[in-house]
Amino acid sequence: MKNDKGMIVLTSLVAVGIFVIAGITSYFHSMLALPIAIIGLIFIPFILLQNKVRYSNISVKLEHIMFFITLAVIIIGFILIYTPV
After folding, report:
1. Number of domains in the chain
2. Distance of alpha carbon 50 from alpha carbon 74, whole angstroms
3. Which is more confident, 65 or 9?
């Protein structure tokens, strides 16, 4: 992971972008995007500290957990969108 410092910085910039865009969306449109902004804010330090072994392991575990949460939210979203009214 120490060889990928450029990728870590770019990934943290993506997390900052998620935080900014979700914050703007929450402010102007709907508060439903606020949890995404909070999650993006939580992940920024974890991404920046990935060159340390302890944080790298925590980050990988959180990545797996967030993958399954995201998958569940997408499935629930499709079920809610395509249910007949």
Report:
1. 1
2. 27
3. 65
